[in-house]
Amino acid sequence: MSRIIHTILCMVLLAYVKADSDFPFWEHDQIPVRALSTRNEESIYRLPGDVVPLEYDVYLDLFFAERTDRPFSYDGRVNITIQAVQENVTQIVLHANVDRVRGASLYKNEIPVQLNHTNALIIERQYHFLKVNSLNALVVGENYTLVIEYSSVMNDGPMKRGIWRGWYIDENNIERIYATTHFQPYNARQAFPCWDEPLYKAVFTLHISRPTNYSATFTNTGLDTYDHLDMNFQDRVVEHFLPTPKMSTYLVTFLVSETFKVIANDTSFNPPIRIIGRSNTQGYGDHALNLTVGMTKFFGDYFDMPYESLHKNLYNDHISSPDWASAGTENWGMVSYRELNLIIYPRETIMSVEHYATTLVSHELAHKWFGNLVTCYWWSNTWINEGFASYFGYIASHEVFPQYELHEHFNSRYLQTSLAFDSGSTVPMNNDVNTPSQVTGHFGTISYSKGAAFLRMTVNIISPETFQKACKIFLEDNRLEPVDQYDLYDAFAAAIAEDGSLREYNDFNFTEYYRVWVNEPGYPLLNVDINHSNGEITLTQERFFLNGNTPPTGQIYPIPITYSTKSNTRFRDLKPVSMMSSEIAVIQKSEEEEWVIFNNLQHAHYRVNYDDKTWDLIAEALLNEPETIDHLNRAQIADDVFALMRSERLTYHKGFQILKFLRYESNYHVWTVAISGYTWLRNRLRHLPSQQATFDSFILSYLEHVIETVGYETISNETPTISLTRQEVLQFACNLGHEKCVEESLQWFRRLKNQQWVNPKIRRHVYITGVREGTSEDYTFLLNRFRTSNFANDKLEMLRGLGATKDSELLTEYLDLTLQKEVRSHDKATSFNYALLGNKENANVALEYIKNNIDAIREAYVEDSPANPVQTVLSNLATYLDEPELVDYENWLRTTQRDSLQFNNTINAINNARANIEWGTANADIILSAARDSASIVVTSAIMLLVTTLFTFVL
Ligand SMILES: *[C@@H]1O[C@H](CO)[C@@H](O)[C@H](O)[C@H]1NC(C)=O
Ligand SMILES: *[C@@H]1O[C@H](CO)[C@@H](O)[C@H](O)[C@H]1NC(C)=O
Ligand SMILES: *[C@@H]1O[C@H](CO)[C@@H](O)[C@H](O)[C@H]1NC(C)=O
Ligand SMILES: *[C@@H]1O[C@H](CO)[C@@H](O)[C@H](O)[C@H]1NC(C)=O
Ligand SMILES: [Zn+2]
Question: What is this structure's pTM?
Answer without folding.
Answer: 0.93
